Amino acid sequence: MAMQSRITELFEIDYPIISGGMVWCSGWELAAAVSNAGGLGLIGAGSMTPEVLREHIIKCREKTPYNFGVNVPLMRPQAAELMEVIAEQKVPIVFTSAGSPKKWTGWLHEHKIKVAHVVSSSAFAVKCEAAGVDAIVAEGFEAGGHNGKEETTTMCLVPAVRRVTDLPLIAAGGIATGDAMLAVEAMGADGVQIGTLFALTQESSAHENFKRHCLNLNEGDTLLHFRKLSPTRLAKNNFQSAVQEAENRGASEDELLEIIGIGKTKTGIFDGDVENGELEIGQIASLLKGREIEPVEIVIERFVEEYYSYRRQLINQAMEAMISRRSLL
Hints:
Blueprint: H1 6-11, E1 17-19, H2 28-36, E2 41-44, H3 50-63, E3 68-73, H4 79-88, E4 93-97, H5 105-110, E5 114-119, H6 122-131, E6 135-139, E7 145-146, H7 154-164, E8 169-172, H8 178-186, E9 191-194, H9 196-199, H10 208-214, E10 222-225, E11 232-235, H11 238-248, H12 253-260, H13 264-270, H14 296-328
Parallel strand pairs: 1-9, 2-3, 3-4, 4-5, 5-6, 6-8, 8-9
Antiparallel strand pairs: 7-11, 10-11
């Protein structure tokens, strides 16, 4: 059963469910699987060269007849080259993050590309509306990977953003179940963007070691680090311990950059060295503990069933409460 919302209408999809553009996880296979299952799949260009991105776009188009998009972190040195590939390949949707929405929105619209921008505060949401974006993603502190410096949780951020803009709003951060989508919908969101849940599916390009490690995390096993650089949520391991020790003794930005080194996210997520690599994953991973590595189709099917089940429960409870009040009159 398709869901109707401003997000499904905007992106021409069945469900207002969007996969996060995650480095080393969101390749063409994951994007195509999400789109084929009724959501909007995103290719994560944050870990790709322009040539690799072109290859992923072509393969994704071969595997799905439905809309898909690309996520571009604007802080990437090659952002301009990535945008040229996106325009050349006529990708219909782009999600931008980690930069000013004003920089590329107009250019993308000239190429008939719809734009959503990721924000971590209501102040940036206002800037998004001024820049003319088509939709806003409000990503809370719970999310994996790079986070906003405000450290505002999703439950606080979504209603704050809704107060300052009427644009289609997508909630992100800590969403992995149907009841979570129902909750953010009640606060004004028109859809959700999901990272962790999809990062741990069969179609994710992450290494199986990474997926199994993250499916065994407990509450408190992810922490936010690199506040001096770009706040990033990491799972606990040897790399994270080294970062924590350095930050506790007041390490400089240069020393932290040295610890990060080159390719630590690839080492952990793509190559599967779960002890010494950088493992970016969301807080919600602990809620998924014990699950199998499943195909996207099953994950989305369960998610949608959960959503409708919880919605029916709330409606039934409201009806029962109404009947009960009337009987007392």
